[in-house]
């Protein structure tokens, strides 16, 4: 995948009218089923916002605990793998509700963050997961600038003292590196689903193989009209929403 300079990315965005476009692309019930697929498995997430309980943070809490995500009191140093955001702010005018709903890395098929990284520390796996090699990260934050969703965080301070309940099951990071959702690739290796979807009390989050027509996520995509964040940018997000 050829790298593109950040200035070129910004210039193309302005020239093509990307900036200011609607936040979401509407996807009909049959669109995903009929669109061409890359061979092999591709992990994805579908969030049914109709089932997402108001004020619930179970998915956020589970993620923070599972992956040693630090909690800083200073909002300018916030590190998040998944967070909840007001529906209108997240989905745009297509969403009338002010209820908060989950937002996370979209694990795009054409990730702009990967193109922008000069060290290949952020990369897309064959199964569709966009992952980070913390040891290769030089802290340049090019990926943060390139991500149109703002879903990459940077450790301005040492994150370890800000971890409330550290777990030995996942490595902690250090000051000066980026981090984000990894679709719980560590849990997938053990045959487990992501901690966020497994802890959702109402089953609002469905995780699975987008390329498997028999999977639960594919059945839901075929039966419902869904939306993806800023899909008009051509990033091909792997996170879908039912509103």
Automatic annotation (TrEMBL):
Residues 43-75, 96-127, 128-157 form the 4Fe-4S ferredoxin-type domain. GO terms for molecular function: 4 iron, 4 sulfur cluster binding; metal ion binding. InterPro entries: 4Fe4S_Fe-S-bd, 4Fe4S_Fe_S_CS, DsrO-like, ET_IronSulfur_Cluster-Binding. Keywords: 4Fe-4S, Iron, Iron-sulfur, Metal-binding. CDD domains: PsrB (cd10551). The keyword Iron applies. This is Putative sulfite reductase-associated electron transfer protein DsrO.
